[in-house]
């Protein structure tokens, strides 16, 4: 078809197409948000985005909440020291359990973010935290309390402890 025979597009049609495209994009973005809000409100299955103490319910928040408790109890340690050890021990998985090492062979596997065994957790548990070894804040705080007693600080731990 020659250029003279092709239908001519006006500026208005280009503007209309742009507005339709923008409107469609906004609708696509808004629909999942509306649906997700309604679904979680109806079923009550949403996970809390913060801990009971108001920290983010993630690795960063668990470490920061533990550090606040540690400061109150005069347990030494830094964010970087805790984070480094968590990543090495559990890759940040609060449900991690070691079923293959010498502790596991004795029937007391290492558990949680900092891979603490039950007797150590019970001995170094910090008042005000959960008695659940898999609770991230309780696990971090007890492990840091143990590391402080044994090594001076979690910051001084660079391998299995």
From TrEMBL:
Cleavable signal peptide: none
InterPro entries on file: Lysozyme-like_dom_sf, Transglycosylase_SLT_dom_1
Pfam family membership, one: SLT
Domain Transglycosylase SLT: 86-158
Name the record gives this protein: Transglycosylase SLT domain-containing protein
